[in-house]
Design brief:
- The complex is a heterodimer of chains A (307) and B (362).
- Chain A is mostly helical and 307 residues long.
- Chain A has 14 helices and no strands.
- Chain A has helices spanning 2-31, 39-57, 60-84, 89-108, 133-137, 142-160, 162-172, 174-179, 184-210, 222-232, 237-256, 266-270, 272-285, 288-294.
- Chain A is globular, with a radius of gyration of 19 Å.
- The N and C termini of chain A lie far apart (62 Å).
- Chain B has one domain: Orthogonal Bundle (ABC transporter involved in vitamin B12 uptake, BtuC).
- Chain B is built from 14 helices and two strands.
- Chain B has a two-stranded antiparallel ribbon.
- The longest helix of chain B has 28 residues, at 242-269.
- Classes of the chains: A mainly alpha (307), B mainly alpha (362).
- The interface between A and B is large, with 51 and 49 residues.
Chain lengths: 307, 362
Amino acid sequence: MIDLLVPLLAGTLAAATPVIFAALGELVAERSGVLNLGVEGMMLVGAMAAFAGATGSGSLWLGVLLGGLAGAGLAVIFCVLALNLLANQVACGLALTIFGVGLSAFVGRAYVSLTLRGLGPVTVPGLSQIPVVGPIVFRQGALVYLAILTYGAVSWFLYRTKAGLILRAVGESPQAAHAIGHPVLRIRYLATMSGGFLAGVGGAYLAVAYTPMWVEQMTAGRGWIALALVVFATWRPGRVLLGAYLFGGVTILQFHAQGLGINLPNELLSSLPYLATILVLVLISRNYQTIRLNAPASLGLPFHASD
Amino acid sequence: MPFRLEARPEHSRLMGYASPLVAALLMAGAGFLLFPVLGREPLPALHTFFVTPLSSRNGVAELLLKASPLMLMAQGLAIGFRANVWNIGAEGQLTLGAIGASLLAIRYDGTTSPWLLPAMVGAAAVGGMIWAAIPAFLRTRFHTSEILVTLMLTYVASLLLSYLVHGPLRDPQGLNFPQSIMFDQSAMFPLILEGTRLNASILISLVVTALAWVFMERSFAGYQMLVGGLSPLAARYAGFGETRAVWLGLLIGGAVAGLAGAGEVAGPLGQLQPQVSPGYGFAAIIVAFVGRLHPVGIVWASLLMSLLYLGGESAQIALQLPSAITGMFQGLLLFFLLGLDVLIYYRVSWRHSAAVPRRAAV
């Protein structure tokens, strides 16, 4: 049983990583009042840019950085439309995803059959020798650790810094924040772009570490799952982490089903992450008050200083 | 900023009509700038993309063939969107429709009954409605976001389709290819233009368009949904239930998406395949917006969007550019439209920033 559990749990950490990045990024944007449904598009463009950057430069880390920047760049388009031009945020997010799918497929055509030596695991000296825990926790890729550090950084920023407090205030009441002199648009721009950067890094993780190659639509809905996790987490970073590991576990289960003696059609096992996402969404939104009380009050609403 | 946005006292009808046209022109303009970057002469490339596909009788038939499912689905989606019901999983509902129609076509293979095709159409609508009923139930019963549920179900639908064509519905004589048997003539929409692939399913799209117009412009139920979308509080005060709007919006959207699925398998495909749509369900969202969520506007928008698909194919053949360029143009079109729509409710006032009285710094 332990023989099975170790790869299962190790795989869970890895599978959760792209979703942690993307969901934490979206959480920051949503706490400032911006609902960006373009996460899937930003992840895909991030994955594409990272793969292209890594194969072009030979540096995987440069690829990851490019992936993040590409995600942030796409977020700027969203900001111009939704924040400057006050367009419907739901429609803008959908447009961003449609554009991101098309752009990444178009540019990615040249990279389809290339392979990459992906980011390998980092073996933490000493700790990785601990039985069971060692191979699960201390022989992971660097980005897996970085995702957890990002969780810490986002929590600290939102709850322990003045800037985080201002960002949350903008999300609750942009009018009040504007009235006492905070630049609402600039704060929302920065929050949304940070969200785009993290979504891009999440996509980059897929393309340079998890499955080091480029395949059209390789994110397979993880951007949408990240959006669902933010709701599931009731906009709190800690629960994002929990939800992501839950998702990671369900995802990885399909590769170990046979070993566990589960004989179900492959397609059914592959659809479990999506069904599980629906299930947790239902469980959390069942109590409408939870969502009402925890969602940023101005989420998805445009802000115009003359209002 | 050198300009600022001022709310218009009344929204501009002119911009409502003009912004889709200007957006289409800007999209073509973006193409003009993009093609040189890709090493292609801009004018001939634009010609290849937007004109060549229409220069033959067959091209026009293909335009109508691809516009048909887009028009059909966008009509259903627009009804929901106007009531703030965001069904973005039409792609999955289309897949279930295709499966529903195919089940009958495969089960009754060999029959010459004239009732097979109508039964397939009915099964397709039911398939799409079942898939849309799930998010409707979850939204009305548990307040679950229909955006995320419809999308998750799209991935589940494509896996279900994959399971069926690899397993129970695979053609036993098909050399293990993941696809069903070819449908009989009695399970196919009759062709309506000699020598082309244009078939009678486009009549369904036109009838649905007419029905959508009557529903939105003339019926009380359509009016209730409109009010619900424009002002939920007013709707609640008037006693127009949100629950009803959610169910109606999703079921109508699901039914027509299912019909579009039947149009594909009983039309150009002629069998069930692992992929039954090149993303029509998502493109239909753009069609609904570009068509101003209005039944007549959607007809024009579906033709434009269909042209983008043909242009992508044409660019692939003549210019050796990946046909994925279609998705980029679709996204750009929606970007421009959403950006221009600000002018419906606001006007731009150009001023020197110095002339704007500045508030004292806080």
